[in-house]
Write a structure and sequence with these properties.
The strands form 8 sheets. Strands 1, 2, 3, 5, 6, 9, 12, 14 and 15 form a 9-stranded mixed beta sheet that branches. Strands 17-18-19-21-20 form a 5-stranded mixed beta sheet. Helix 8 crosses helix 9 (432-443) and helix 23 packs antiparallel against helix 24. By secondary structure, it is of the alpha+beta class. Mean pLDDT is 94; it is low at 1-15. The radius of gyration is 28 Å and the shape is globular. A hairpin with a 4-residue loop joins strand 20 (275-276) and strand 21 (281-285).
């Protein structure tokens, strides 16, 4: 039901022409009063919206955003109006006479949908025997809750009143100011008026929640609560103990108190978005918040703290000061991502944030290597663009770029600029120019032009470095171009203004490379250095192409002096050189072999990632396959057996994290009989006792066992997945079933998606698992083609388009045209679908070209090795 339903007569006069994307400036809201009647057991809800309007230009129609809403009655200043509602996303209110410039009051009574399949808009969810209602409005789903001006630049106060069942709790952005018993099992809850906020930040929840007191911020006194589904209060020990510390770190950085009167952290049973920063009512997917006693993992504790830091950073950056339009989403998301890492590094120095930044940067660079990639600050020409703007480029690339320029400006100056920006635009809207001017003014260093080269154009600079020691002072000669992968047709002539920082044994220096060529004197070097690290700390957003001499110095004499992030960055850059066709992938294998024995878990993990995929990708057959497995045993076997699959009482957190990363992958690649037998024993015990496997290892152990799973195992796991009421348990089992490789079992798994026996949002992992495996990929593709049209209506509107990316892992040029033929017309109907297809097709092609070029070299390398 995409079109707005209307019970009044429709007008279709030439005067009532709807907008195409943005509402005009002729009329703006001054404030909203919204009254809703919400019953989580129902499939719809009733609402009343009163909007005070500032009519700035005489108009014949007041246009607002609305979708899946039935307007029952409407009036302006008490006079009935006609309703125009024949376009998705918009509704028009037409008075009897054109409205003059004035203040007016628009009254709307309506009915809207309560969906139990969506995860955005106003949705119903079930937990155990209870029903709940949650909201998720970013980016443009407030229009599913009430007619409104659903744009970030429209920022006004909201006053919300909820009529709910007496047994249900009601929560919104602001504290409750009154609660009235209406009799017959109902009550009316009125909330304080919000400060000026945009529609996408309005939020409410209804249901039989439990509330856990999590203390107050020692800085501002802001009260903090954790709101969870009934019966789960015991599962929030970590969030309740740590959230106040997260908030205090942010208040110290921003130099100001939390800008809203309360802070509720809400555990949502199912989300597709991870978390959402609604002021006063921050939503988290349940897995981040809820951990039963004894099931807490290091990874999930850290994940909660980091996501909390990110979402609470938005209380200032996004909520207090809001972007003017969706092209500046990066102002919210990149800044919050960067600040999370920046503060975590100081608050929790053992959590290896510098290493995590390298992983984040590399993920962004991988996405940025495609011709179909977009700029950090991208133009918004359609609602499709709005939906697709929340991507890796915005978050990870934007974050790395901010960090690079923060180092250029200086930590204190940059922080002062942030505070200046917030002070100038508090409770209002701002854009990229406003932000960069504030930073430049605080640091007395203009960065706007250089910064723009990274956020206003796509792609990654790749810089060739050559060391020249012929003169008195050693010099690095630099040449930049755009990084492209083998098989790409992109031009390489794009240029950036790149802050380059380098390090050598006894010195360090930085310079902004402004043209295609540039020289960087190693000022202070007393002789030709034995090695030079061209990207100090791996903090710069650029690929390094070292000369052979420079590379040899880094791999040999310089390796012991490189930091962990620099080792990770070196391996990443060498891998990128092979993807570009500049060197053989065997050079990556050789470097990974050297790093595999490093004492740091991040370096070992990077080495494992660089080489552990070859067997699963089907690159190795015949005699080179046993040679590969023996080589992997030589690199990782000793450490894998030392770690084992059971924790030791004196394990450090790093040891436990390395075990979870290394051992399952090692078993999967080598089929080590001793460790595989242990995994099978643990998996059998886990089905009877969920504490039989340490929580960090559950998915890894079940995955390696599932790869050779039997029909009896499938039956037991599927029965448990259908029976369990606990979503974390169900997801573990779905992932395990998705790892099975027996074609008959995979077909059985996919057949379950055709029924309603399990929440499709969870069960879809069966399809993703089958599509990710070489042995079952064709089965998944065949099934998807046969069932795609029937599957899409059963999925949340923000999930269907992502099915397109299932085909990207095929790595086969022969599938490019069949993929295009099947999805071409279908994706035009899906939010973000055209873009997903564009990315998937390019990814398929480039992967296929890389495989064709490098496969013979890799096979020959292993054939000769043993």
């Amino acid at each position: 039901m995409r079109a707005l339903l209307v019970l009044l007569a429709l007008t279709s006069t030439a005067l009532a022409t709807p907008p195409t994307l943005r509402l005009g400036d002729e009329v703006k809201p001054v404030r909203y009063a919204v009254a809703l009647t919400i019953d989580p057991r129902a499939t719809s809800f009733d609402g009343v919206v009163d909007v005070e309007l500032d009519v700035r230009k005489a108009i014949d129609t007041v246009w607002m955003n609305a979708e899946n809403i039935t307007v029952l009655r409407a009036s302006i200043d008490g006079a009935p109006v006609r309703v125009v509602a024949d376009q998705p996303h918009f509704v028009g209110f037409v008075p009897g006479q054109p409205l003059p410039v004035k203040h007016a009051k628009l009254h709307i009574e309506y009915r809207a949908v309560l969906s139990d399949t969506e995860t955005t808009g106003v949705v119903r969810q079930h937990d155990g025997r209870d029903d709940y209602v949650f909201t998720q409005f970013e980016p443009i789903d407030a229009r599913h809750a009430f007619p409104c001006f659903d744009e970030p630049g429209v920022k006004v106060p909201w006053q919300l009143t909820l009529t709910v069942r007496s047994a249900d709790g009601a929560f919104s952005n602001m504290p409750i100011v009154s609660e009235k018993d209406l009799g017959r099992g109902w009550k009316r809850v009125q909330f304080a008026e919000t400060p000026a906020i945009p529609s996408y930040l309005v939020a409410f929840i209804v249901g039989p929640f439990d509330v856990v007191d999590a203390g107050k911020s020692a800085t501002s006194g802001t009260p903090i609560r954790i709101v969870v589904p009934r019966g789960k209060s015991s599962q929030v020990r970590w969030p309740a103990s740590v959230t106040h510390e997260v908030l205090e770190q942010l208040e110290a950085y921003f130099g100001s108190a939390h800008p809203f009167p309360k802070l509720d952290i809400v555990a949502v049973p199912h989300t597709s978005y991870g978390a959402m920063e609604n002021p006063g009512l921050v939503m988290f997917t349940g897995e981040l918040v809820l951990q039963a006693p004894g099931d807490e993992t290091i990874s999930r504790r850290r994940a909660y703290a980091e996501v909390a830091m990110h979402e609470l950073a938005h209380q200032w950056f996004g909520n207090l000061v809001t972007m003017k339009w969706w092209n500046d989403v990066w102002l919210n998301e990149a800044f919050a991502t960067w600040l999370t890492s920046h503060l975590m590094e100081r608050w929790q120095p053992t959590w290896a944030e510098a290493e995590a930044r390298i992983e984040s940067r590399d993920a962004a660079m991988a996405a940025d290597s495609l011709a179909a990639t977009r700029a950090v600050r991208q133009p918004i020409a359609s609602s499709d663009d709005i939906q697709s703007v929340f991507n890796r480029i915005v978050y990870e690339k934007g974050s790395t770029v901010i960090g690079m320029f923060e180092r250029l400006v200086g930590t204190d100056h940059f922080r002062d600029g942030v505070r200046r920006y917030l002070a100038l635009h508090a409770r209002g809207n701002a854009d990229t120019h406003d932000f960069l001017v504030a930073i430049s003014d605080a640091g007395a260093q203009a960065i706007t032009a250089a910064f723009a080269t990274f956020i206003d154009q796509p792609g990654t600079p790749s810089i060739k470095f050559a060391l020249d020691c012929r003169g008195k002072t050693p010099v690095l000669h630099m040449t930049q171009q755009r990084y492209t992968r083998l098989g790409s047709t992109m031009s390489t002539q794009q240029l950036w203004q790149v802050p380059v920082c380098v390090r050598w044994p006894d010195g360090h220096t930085c310079k902004v490379l402004t043209g295609k060529y540039g020289d960087l004197p190693l000022t202070g070097a007393t002789s030709c250095p034995a090695w030079v690290e061209p990207n100090d700390g791996g903090a710069g957003y650029y690929r390094v192409e070292p000369s052979l001499e420079l590379l040899a110095g880094l791999e040999n004499g310089g390796m012991a002096s490189l930091t962990v992030p620099e080792k990770m960055s070196l391996l990443s850059d060498v891998s990128a050189l092979s993807s570009a066709g500049h060197i053989d992938y065997t050079e990556v294998l050789a470097l990974a072999g050297k790093l595999a024995h490093d004492p740091d878990r991040h370096v070992v993990g990077a080495a494992l990632d660089a080489v552990g995929w070859l067997d699963q990708a089907g690159w190795l057959t015949g005699r080179e396959r046993p040679a590969y497995r023996l080589w992997m045993h030589e690199l990782f076997g000793k450490r894998a057996h030392e770690l084992g699959l059971s924790p030791h009482k004196d394990d450090s957190e790093d040891t436990r994290l390395l075990r979870a990363q290394l051992v399952p992958t090692y078993i999967a690649v080598t089929g080590d009989p001793v460790l595989l037998a242990e995994a099978r024993k643990l998996a059998a015990a886990w089905l009877k006792d969920p504490h039989a496997i340490t929580p960090d290892l559950v998915d890894g152990v079940l995955d390696v066992v599932g790869r050779s799973g039997t029909r009896a195992q499938w039956n037991a796991w599927m029965k448990a997945a259908r029976a369990t009421k606990e979503r974390p348990m169900r997801l573990h089992l779905v992932n395990a079933l998705g790892s099975m490789r027996d074609p008959a079992l995979v077909r059985s798994s996919l057949a379950t998606l055709e029924s309603d026996g399990m929440d499709l949002r969870d069960a879809l992992g069966l399809l993703w698992g089958a599509a990710s495996q070489l042995e079952t990929r064709a089965i998944a593709w065949t099934w998807l083609q046969a069932h795609f049209d029937a599957l899409v209506p059963r999925l949340p509107r923000d999930a269907a388009a992502r099915l397109v990316s299932l085909t990207e892992s095929a790595c086969d040029d022969a599938l490019v045209e069949p993929t295009r033929a099947f999805f071409g017309e279908r994706v035009k109907k899906l939010d973000g679908g055209v873009r997903e297809l564009e990315l998937a097709l390019e990814g398929q092609h480039l992967c296929s070209v890389f495989r064709t070029a490098q496969l013979p070299l890799v096979q020959r390398w292993f054939s000769k090795k043993h």
